[in-house]
Automatic annotation (TrEMBL):
It comes from Acinetobacter johnsonii. The chain crosses the membrane at residues 15-34. It comes from the Bacteria. Keywords: Membrane, Transmembrane, Transmembrane helix. This is SPOR domain-containing protein. The lineage of its organism: Bacteria, Pseudomonadati, Pseudomonadota, Gammaproteobacteria, Moraxellales.
């Protein structure tokens, strides 16, 4: 009887747990159905901090001061002229020469890439007054040196001067007439005339001068006085003899001594020398 009651109680307990489990499962399904939505939920953006909000106005405020550093950082000056680090000849010219003669014409003798070639050519010329040379540089221009001859008012005068030009040049060199203004775009140097390097040649003129007359009698007298001074400068010697005697008058001892006395040195007079400036 007791066994039957225990079995019925266990059966009821199992049904109770089964019903409770089914109720929990049903509740879970209902909760899942309610919360499962396909609509997109907008997420609110996090508010910016106070530090970020303070920085933004400062960034905008700086745009109002554009160009305020022009005094500290000056813009590039495209008119600045260049001084080439080199030892130029006195005939080297720059922008000043171009501006003063831009309406004139000249004779272009030749162009080279080395300045030393022009220097050697100028050194062989006896008259360098009419020669000048320029350094050509630019964005689309390789560095060259151009030697020019003379400055003329127009191309006709330059052409006539070219016809009468007497210079020994190689056959491959063909001088031509050019306007000085055509070099302005490629010249941006300071010339020797602006730097004070235009050394002028000065001629030294020598004038004849009388040769001084030498008095033989005066020279002989000075030589004789010099020999007399040497003779007086010889040393003088004094001899002393000491004789010792006893009470009876007999000679006991005799002593002799010599004393040398040097004469006081005499000041020598500096004799003026007579020199011939032409010997």
């Amino acid at each position: 009887m007791a066994t039957t009651l225990r079995t019925q109680w266990q059966t009821k307990q199992n049904y109770i747990w089964l019903a409770f489990g089914g109720a929990c499962l049903f509740g879970a399904l209902v909760f899942w159905a309610i919360t499962d939505q396909e609509a997109v939920v907008e997420v609110e953006k996090k508010a910016e901090s106070e530090v970020e909000l303070q920085i933004q106005p400062e960034k905008v405020a700086t745009t109002a001061h554009l160009g305020s550093f022009l005094d500290e950082v000056k813009p590039l000056d495209m008119t600045t002229r260049v001084v080439a680090i080199a030892q130029h000849e006195a005939e080297f010219r720059g922008t000043k020469f171009i501006q003063e003669n831009k309406k004139n014409s000249t004779i272009e003798l030749f162009r080279v890439s080395e300045e030393a070639i022009i220097k050697r050519f100028l050194q062989r010329q006896s008259d360098r007054q009419a020669f000048s040379y320029l350094r050509l540089t630019g964005e689309n221009q390789i560095e060259q040196y151009v030697l020019i001859y003379g400055v003329y008012k127009n191309a006709n005068e330059a052409q006539k001067a070219l016809a009468d030009l007497k210079l020994t040049l190689p056959k491959s060199v063909q001088p031509k007439v050019e306007k000085i203004e055509s070099y302005a775009e490629y010249v941006n140097d300071l010339g020797s005339d602006e730097l004070g390097l235009s050394n002028k040649l000065y001629a030294v003129q020598l004038k004849p001068a009388a040769v001084p007359v030498i008095d033989e009698a005066t020279l002989a007298a000075r030589q004789q006085a010099a020999r007399a001074a040497v003779a007086q400068n010889k040393q003088s010697t004094t001899s002393t003899t000491v004789t010792r005697r006893d009470v009876d008058g007999n000679v006991v001892d005799v002593q002799k001594s010599q004393t040398t006395v040097e004469n006081a040195p005499q000041n020598k007079t500096n004799e003026p020398e007579v020199t011939d400036p032409f010997n």
